Amino acid sequence: MNGLGETRQLDTATRILDAAEALFVEHGFEATSMRMITQRAEVNLAAVNYHFGSKDALFQGVFTRRLTPLTQLAVQNLDRLEAAAQGEPVSVERIMRAFMDAALDIAHDPKRGGVIFVRLLSRTFIEAHPVLRESLPWHYEELVARYAKATAKALPELDAIELQWRLNFAFSAIFNAFAGNNILRLFVIDPVVNARDPRLIATYLVPFVVAGLTAPVTAKGAGSSF
């Protein structure tokens, strides 16, 4: 195949991925039909099947092209902090900012997905689509291990179980916030919260998450009192 043919195929695949990415954000995975994707991408169903084979494979393809840059940025940010710390613990605030700075870099770079991908990623974690449950750990294994290890070093007073609970809550809050969800709209007619501005979200989210991670150690046996 000549270069022109390869470019056209690449352009078609990219259009399909871009269309699917936007539609998954707008409607979710289950509500997005192949017909919607083909109409948005201006291609026929045969083109989607040729490049991806199935809706599940297309969904994974949307993430594969975006996850690597996010993971690399987040790990590189942490690498720099740990190198500067020269063996000393990095503060929890700086650890959380390292991760969110990576997300913000992606959110402000349309070539790497921009805010659309950040919201899609967040929405996917919240909705926990089965098609990604097996593939996501492979993409995130190093990222999760590095951030968990750095947080454990910063909070030596926490045992492994409590640390995992806190990280679970922390990243749940982060992904939910970046998904653009404004829970206050359920209770307040005109809330002032702007859940669509990633940088504003990070400004208020970092101290909230840090406060939860660094809260006093839970009393032993407290769980039995509920």
UniProtKB/TrEMBL annotation:
DNA-binding region: 33-52
Residue ranges of domain HTH tetR-type in the record: 10-70
Entry-linked InterPro entries: DNA-bd_HTH_TetR-type_CS, Homeodomain-like_sf, HTH-type_TetR-like_transc_reg, HTH_TetR, PsrA_TetR_C, Tet_transcr_reg_TetR-rel_C_sf
Pfam families cross-referenced by the UniProt entry: TetR_C_30, TetR_N
Entry keyword annotation includes Repressor: yes
PROSITE patterns assigned to the protein according to its UniProt record, in alphabetical order: HTH_TETR_1, HTH_TETR_2
Entry annotated with the keyword Oxidoreductase: no
Swiss-Prot/TrEMBL keywords: DNA-binding, Repressor, Transcription, Transcription regulation
Protein's name in the database: HTH tetR-type domain-containing protein
UniProt organism field: Chitinimonas prasina
